[in-house]
What we know:
The structure holds 2 protein chains of 2 kinds.
Chain A: E1 2-7, E2 10-15, H1 22-29, E3 48-51, E4 54-57, E5 70-72, H2 85-92, H3 102-115, H4 121-127, H5 138-160
Parallel strand pairs in A: 1-5
Antiparallel strand pairs in A: 1-2, 3-4, 3-5
Chain B: H1 3-16, H2 40-45, E1 60-66, E2 72-78, H3 80-83, E3 88-93, E4 119-120, E5 126-132, H4 135-143, E6 146-151, H5 158-161, E7 175-183, H6 186-191, E8 195-202, E9 215-221, E10 226-231, H7 236-247, E11 254-257, H8 274-284, E12 288-291, H9 294-300, E13 307-315, E14 321-333, H10 339-348, E15 358-367, H11 381-399, H12 403-410, H13 430-440
Parallel strand pairs in B: 1-12, 10-11, 14-15
Antiparallel strand pairs in B: 1-5, 2-4, 2-6, 3-5, 7-15, 8-13, 9-10, 9-12, 13-14
Helix pairs in contact in B: 7-8, 10-11
Keywords (chain A): 2Fe-2S, Iron, Iron-sulfur, Metal-binding, Oxidoreductase
Protein name (chain A): Purine hydroxylase delta subunit apoprotein
Domain 2Fe-2S ferredoxin-type (chain A): 1-77
Amino acid sequence: MQITFTVNGEERELEVTPYTRLLDLLREDLGLTGVKEGCGKGECGACTVIMNGELTASCLVPAPQADQAEILTVEGLGTRDDLHPIQESFVEAGAVQCGYCIPGMILAGKRLLDENPQPTEKEVRYGLSGNICRCTGYAKIIDAVMMAADKLAVEGSDSND
Amino acid sequence: MTDQNKRIKDYFCKHTTRCTIEGVKKSKRFVGHDVLKADAWDKVTGEAVYPDDIFFDDLLYVKIKRAVHPHAILKDIDISQAKKVEGVVDIVIAEDIPDVRQFGLIIRDQPVLIAPGEKMRYMGDPLAIVVAETKEAAKKARDLIKVKVEELEVITDPFRAMEDDAPDIHPDGNIVITHHLNRGDVDEAFKNSAIVEENRYQTQFIDQLPMQNEAGVALYDERRGVINIWAATQWLHDTQADVAQSLRLSKDQIRIIQPTIGGAFGKKEDVSVHIHLAIAAMRTGRPVKLCFTREESMITQSKRHPITIINKTGVDRDGYLTAWETKFIGDTGAYASSGPAVVHKGMYHATGPYNCPNLRGVSHAVYTNNTYAGAMRGFGTAQGAFAYEQQMDILAEKLSIDPAEFRLKNIYQKDSITPNGQQLTHSVNAEETIKRVMELSDWKGGRK
């Protein structure tokens, strides 16, 4: 079947089978390999994307369900030369180890800050609770999201000037 | 620092991917400075390439048919139905690869494929390699492979495995290896001890659980006679040598390229996808990909050893350790993997960071039909820590002294000698560490 959806701001039209997972569609058909598979069971958060504004485990979504959806993956957030403040904060806070959980962590951080620009540390912990980092780098990941909140606040006040 | 030294340092830092000198140009040294991880930019943008992220246009997908019983003789394998699945390119069974040899980190006891007449020893043992145009076809064909087996007793307990009437999981018996430790006169010291405490401790299987499952891609370069394998390993050159000997090729015919590794923690020391990928690549002449599911990774690849530790510890009236006897029995599962080294190291750490003049130890790695156990952070020492610290707490209570004071009495100092005979000549800060913990935790002597 044919589906139409928007990925990272670009409208795409694709032929999918009913048993294709959104995860495979993004990784294999669209080459968005920043979306990772950790467990295939919606437990680990490595395959997290933002779909219609909500954090979504793409391994649990049948591709046809993404018809008409708007999806953001880590590739749509910022590039190497123009990092999003959250990505920049992850680099600067030393939050990245093996890196496999990081795209999901960054998107979970973004979703949180979109809704709650100045979260408490407790709120950050809660916002990231669907994502597992096996390198156990949580402390610095939390630091990174807190740092990003500060950066975004400064940027926001700049743009208001 | 000379320019050349700077260049070397810069090169080293960039290529170990552990640090970078970018952003700290004002400094000549790294200690005391924040250094940014060289590959962090790739990882925050999703550009980093992990094994599963490698694609070729004419890529084939590999799935492995695995054991149907933890301990059974394979009587027959029927691939006729599986071969009819549309998109299947090749199904490899043991008779197709008669020259391929067993592999393994320390003991080469792992078969590449189980042949009829041979035994499957755990649920991860491979019976057939299925290669197909799509993942779905490979999966479908794998599930259509029919297997007949003769079931044997399943041994899940190393103590059962060590009994005389237990069936041998491997031809040379179930005890893979035995290590001994002897220092001083343990029997005499126990006789003269004020208190002797003997307890049995049991730890469990733990999966290292790196976020990224075992995965890889291989491509056979026929003109050069070289197999390129993109897959994670923690022992690049050992893996290369093991794959080469298994396939009866020379090492320079096996090229292993490390993509970004999504964590390992010991689990990726063992060969996983490599040999099956190499065989599939050579037979089909096309690029091939094999990615384990999480379930497959948990069933097939190594674990932290469950260890039974029997500790007998003596102290004198003044609270000094007099003698320590340890039995350290590791369930290494169906294959040895790092087991022989893990139980060796674990035994040497039986007394933890505490001085004890008289020591006796024995350790075994024992085959069972459980998933094989290998390396995981600490390599046998984490299991031992649980047991020796419990001993220390129990003895302190029996002596009616503060468990922290009891540890301070016995803690390693400079010039202490470890059970394996190493004299600690510098950087022994254990006493300072305990004191600092007491201070920071506002230690009240262990009483409520």
